[in-house]
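Annex B. Sample input.
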Amino acid sequence: GRTQAGDMDIKDTSDEIATELRMREAKTFETTEESKRDITIALNIWRRSLEAENKRLKEVLPVVRQRYEVLLKQRKTLKEKINKLRESLDLSTYTTKSDPDDNVRTANSFSLEVLEYSNVSTCSPMPSQVDPHL
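Annex B, continued. Sample output.
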């Protein structure tokens, strides 16, 4: 098995290819590890912001609920005053289309739902987005 000059060239070339492949593999691994690190960092930041959002919602919602109940009381008082006035003018009493109690139930279940989902989604409505003209 005498080695020809051409055989050496093939061996050298295959060694070069093997080395090149090993280097590429190492580079790919490095890049993958960097990507994993970046993703982990991004996920941690996202998780922290979700936790902060969740905490804020838990603080804000009771305040929103209280304000809502105050507004409902004011509405009831106003309705009573209007009706007294209408009676004195011999007009039929004023009735609202929707029962405020239904709204309270909706508001409360809304609050609870938001709390349940707030640690999953950042798309929960903020108090500023809750319709003030209820």
